[in-house]
Amino acid sequence: MDNATASMPASGATIDPKEAAHFGALAAEWWDPAGSSAMLHKLNPVRLAFIREAIDLHFSQDSRALKPLAGKTALDAGCGAGLLCEPLARMGAAVTGVDAAPENIAAARAHADAMGLPINYRAGELGTLGLANFDLVCSLEVVEHVTDKAAFMSQLAAALAPDGLMILSCPNRTARSRLLLVEAAERLGHVPRGTHDWTQFVTPAELQDLASRAGLELGTPRGIAWSPLKGLHLSDDLSLNFIVTARKR
């Protein structure tokens, strides 16, 4: 199924210029596993394990297939410098990545070119780009950074094909996430200072409400937990971070 540039009215603005500037300033280090995005490099395999299982279930794919997204389109909204876009492209998808920071898009294009991956990168407000009819829409660790969460969720829903699959992830607003993701991680240098505003984190119940208002139905969320023995891993514990599928109702 091909993505289309639809003729649709622009949705409400969701980009926070301060957030875009913060992440844009980190663009040069995004692909350095020991740099400022080191935590994302550790998180990515955990998210990809969930995504791969969700793809196989939703599209009835063989879990052994090397390219389960062959012939399908995928959108990563809030793509940064392409840490998720490139694995999706290797799974066979025709990938579009959108980000608020032009610096991130420049870094993403340069890295994809070096890897020989034909990814379509776009900078700007998702709701103004007219992107629609994607088989897979992902937005991971993004909703907590937008100014209008309801508008952003509606933009994601508008980009999804009627029978498509959406995957969302977000840090949960709990005492534990405040301690580990904000106070500890930022003070210890695991995450750049100013990356997280704990008050903007979204609980599973709040995400359910946002999704419902956008005409989406969420699946059962899985937690992304941390322990000294396992590191970051999928879990039934949602207190730190969670990842979930969504479909159009």
From TrEMBL:
- Keywords, ordered alphabetically: Methyltransferase, S-adenosyl-L-methionine, Transferase, Ubiquinone biosynthesis
Cite the annotated pathway: Cofactor biosynthesis; ubiquinone biosynthesis
What does the record give as EC number? Answer: 2.1.1.222, 2.1.1.64
Is Transferase a UniProt keyword of this protein?
Answer: yes
**What InterPro entries does the record tag this protein with?**
Fumarate_lyase_CS (IPR020557), SAM-dependent_MTases_sf (IPR029063), UbiG_MeTrfase (IPR010233)
Q: Which Pfam families match?
A: Methyltransf_23
Annotated residues for binding of S-adenosyl-L-methionine: 47, 78, 99, 140
**Does Signal show up as a keyword for this record?**
no
Describe the reaction catalysed, as an equation: a 3-(all-trans-polyprenyl)benzene-1,2-diol + S-adenosyl-L-methionine = a 2-methoxy-6-(all-trans-polyprenyl)phenol + S-adenosyl-L-homocysteine + H(+); a 3-demethylubiquinol + S-adenosyl-L-methionine = a ubiquinol + S-adenosyl-L-homocysteine + H(+)
Which superkingdom heads the taxonomic lineage of this protein's source? Bacteria
**What biological function has been recorded for the protein in this entry?**
O-methyltransferase that catalyzes the 2 O-methylation steps in the ubiquinone biosynthetic pathway.
The record's similarity note reads: Belongs to the methyltransferase superfamily. UbiG/COQ3 family.
Recorded hits in PANTHER family, A to Z, give:
METHYLTRANSFERASE, UBIQUINONE BIOSYNTHESIS O-METHYLTRANSFERASE, MITOCHONDRIAL
- Name of the molecule in the record: Ubiquinone biosynthesis O-methyltransferase
Which organism is this protein's natural source?
Answer: Novosphingobium panipatense
